[in-house]
Amino acid sequence: MADEEAELRGIFLLECDELVGTAEASVETIRGGGGAEAAIHALFRAVHSIKGGAGAFGLGRLADFAHAFETYMDRLRKGTAPLDAAAVDLLFDGVDVLRALAAEVREGEPAPAARYDAALRALRAAGGLEVADSPAAGSVDFDPLADAAVPVDGGGSEAARLYRIRFVPGPKMIGAGIDPLRILETLKELGALSVELDASRLPALAELDPSVCAFAWNLTLETAAGRDALDEIRDMIDDVATFEFEAAAPSAPDPAALEAPGSQPSPAAPPSLPPATEPAKPREKAVPTVRVDVPKLERLGNMVGELIITQAFLARQVAGLDPDAHRQLFRALDEMSQHIRDLADSATSIRAQPLRAVFSRFGALVRELEKSTGKRVRLEITGDQVEIDKTVVERLSEPLTHLIRNSIDHGVEDAAGRAAAGKDPVGHLHLRAEQRGAQVVIELVDDGKGIDRSRVLAKAVERGLVPPGATPSDQEIDELIFLPGFSTAEAVTSVSGRGVGMDAVRQAIGEMGGHVGLTSRPGLGTTFSLHLPLSLAILDAMVTLVGRQNYLIPITAIVESLRPAAASVVRMDDAGAMLAWRGALLRIVPLGAEFGVRDWRTDPTQCILVIVRPSGGEPFALQVDDLIGQEPVVVKSLEKNYRKVKGVSGATILGDGRPALILDLPTLSAATLARRRLERQAAEG
Amino acid sequence: MDVERLKLAATGELGATIEIKTQLLARLEAGRGAYLDARDVDEPSLALIQTIEAAAAAFAERTLPFGLIEPSDRLCAAYETVGLFAQLMSRIAPDS
């Protein structure tokens, strides 16, 4: 029973996150001024639902805070409290504390006490509650269900309507701590309730399990409270009971039903809803869920990984057999391969989480930055429903925080600067995500002043990163901001300028197998693009051979592979060998040289060139001795088991049992460029 | 007729209800009637009400005495709420 309650509580906390997100979006709308009335009602409903759920699960601090928040909201929506800038600030504070309190329950990390106390005091004062008699933490004592009687649709003057309700408690309802009696009492408080009990399922005493409700009801309720009040009750017990209702015209009640409290139903006429005169709002059918411990998921992922390795081993073992002579074997292997791929996809999707989990934190961050910088910024978030591996979601918070801080500090101008540039005084920051194939791309777009390239170049020259007089391209200048310790901030502020930002971002994203891209237009703004793999565990790779070593190239990065004609290989003194390809010259990166492999083929014309385009980067050609074939591989951390190696994102075990390195193309590209620059400088003395 | 009094707890929480069910089954098994002293019931529950109703049916089937003694206002209100007020009236023990 404790497990069931914990499971229900977990579900409530998930819903709570969504409700906090709704609340935050509503406050954003209120701040924007458009549709404020609807947003106030939406905010009220979200806070009210949080209060109800928190009370049901005995989450005193959360329930208490939501109660104060809701009371204040009630004054706002009735117009008895002013809706001004101070009110919006208070609403944002309230949402932030709600989020922190939900995290407190979920993760055990206490919400900041000072902030909780201040916001609670402010909300209670603004809501006209006695500040002094704020109940102590965890001591809130109220019936959340009774509170569902609050009319929440803004229709306080709505005429009474008649609702027919079918209420069938499920077997887990009482065990989950929700007494069906309390639901009926709550309905009674909403208006005139007539009750028709179906006791036909009541078993003999010996068979009775008191924790399983054997009763069901057909109810008729005449109430002015509005449909939302019934919606809230339904939402509260959705997982543990059937609660269906529909409205009938007030003029057409069933007098017998209204005047027959306590009557028993006729066995010949099982309780059923009469024909609807106003169908209930269609609801999405909730998908049943189970909670699974993360270690169990990881074990599943590891086992799928082992299966993939075994499959690759089998594929290699049968490679020499005659397919015609072993048709059944090959068919079975094909089928098994497909099943393993499906299994791997399923295992990946189980680990996936919506980006909302991390994106939802940034509203509060932007508001904090607005206060500390004095700039006004509107954060727009889209695509937060996109899902990505849980580990990635958890590790995204820090780099995205860096980027947002950077955009507001360096990118978005202050109000005067924006006015001078003919821009809206409120800066715009757009955080968006979308899935592209096996990748998720997250972009942070600001409409600020863009990168000041002359300043970046001057700083780079000053620090000896670029020789004086050099004329790097715009893209090369933009790339300079990712160098360790690089910062153009004149002063170290609390926001940025400590020189530990963009390189850390690139490193963090690189460690997740991703890549950071950047485009900037002077006066118009900057876009940072994070390209991330959907899964960190399984990768489709091309197995290559260099000397006696295998190197793996992510399939998604490969444009084509070719054996070059001698005429298409151009040798340049300062850039090594180049490949003439589709009207452009591509750098040839010989993997044998990069990794110090023995016995590799040095002549490009005797090798295979694999043209790759790292996410957001320029294409280049990898020189390998041969291609072995395509394989799904299980990515193992090299760093965890050995150390970080530039140009390598991980390792794997191939089907023949040999280890192989997986190439990290963006860092490999950067490393080869850096090495050639050093070689040039050395050659120039 | 051998009738025993059993006192209902102030709260109809699950543990107490299961306990009263066990006691009622024992009386039933022993062929003895039962009167439930319900004057102190302050927080009735659906679990308690359905247990009382199942017991009433079981004792009636064995033609053994069964009833509620001085049901509290809260219990009466709960019976009315679930749609069993008429049944409650018929369960009031003769000496209450």
Explain this structure to me?
The complex is a heterodimer of chains A (685) and B (96). With 685 residues, chain A is of the alpha+beta class. Chain A is built from 21 helices and 22 strands. In chain A, helix 1 runs antiparallel to helix 2 and helix 1 runs antiparallel to helix 4 (85-107). In chain B, helix 1 links the parallel strand 1 and strand 2. The model of chain B has no long low-confidence stretch (mean pLDDT 90). In chain B, helix 1 packs parallel to helix 2 and helix 3 packs across helix 4 (85-91). The longest helix of chain B is centred in the N-terminal third of the chain and has 16 residues, at 14-29. Chain B contains four helices and three strands; from the N terminus they run βαβαβαα. Helices cover 51% and strands 15% of the residues of chain B. Chain B is globular and about 30 Å long. The chains are: A alpha+beta (685), B alpha/beta (96). Chains A and B meet through helix 7 and strand 2 of A and helix 1, helix 2, helix 3 and helix 4 of B.
Protein topology:
The complex is a heterodimer of chains A (685) and B (96).
Chain A: H1 2-32, H2 36-56, H3 60-78, H4 85-107, H5 113-126, H6 144-147, E1 161-169, H7 180-190, E2 191-198, E3 216-223, H8 227-237, E4 241-248, H9 255-258, H10 294-318, H11 327-351, E5 352-354, H12 356-359, H13 362-373, E6 377-382, E7 387-389, H14 390-411, H15 415-420, E8 427-436, E9 439-446, H16 453-462, H17 474-480, H18 502-511, E10 515-521, E11 525-533, E12 538-546, E13 549-554, E14 558-562, E15 569-572, E16 576-581, E17 584-590, H19 591-594, E18 608-612, E19 620-624, E20 626-634, H20 638-641, E21 648-653, E22 659-663, H21 665-683
Parallel strand pairs in A: 6-8, 13-22, 17-19
Antiparallel strand pairs in A: 1-3, 1-4, 2-3, 5-7, 8-9, 9-11, 10-11, 12-13, 12-20, 14-18, 15-16, 16-17, 18-19, 21-22
Chain B: E1 3-7, H1 14-29, E2 33-37, H2 46-61, E3 66-69, H3 73-82, H4 85-91
Parallel strand pairs in B: 1-2, 2-3
Helix pairs in contact in B: 1-2, 3-4
